[in-house]
Amino acid sequence: VQLVESGGGLVQPGGSLRLSCAGSGFTFSSYSMSWHRQAPGKERELVIGFTSDGVTINYADSVKGRFTISRDNAKNTVYLQMNSLKPEDTAVYYCKVPVLRLWGQGTQVTVSS
Prior knowledge:
By secondary structure, the protein is mainly β. It is 0% helix and 51% strand.
């Protein structure tokens, strides 16, 4: 049972990135998924949450209108599309299956010129 994130990297302010999170070892389509992030010296926070029926349930005000979440159950993958990135979006991004308390290993996103 695991989650594996990918797609992080260095991007300039105003740029975009798409993160992926692939799940295995469980019935992916049956569970809600969420993305979280942790910046240096800060607590981990919820970025955006997603239910198994495709309805976004929650998101941080700081990412409203810039970040979207989607999922492809056929690929056991959830995505985080990040647009108009800002330096304050710099963090390690994690996906999570809240009900299973299952976290991925994280992927670093750095927004800098």
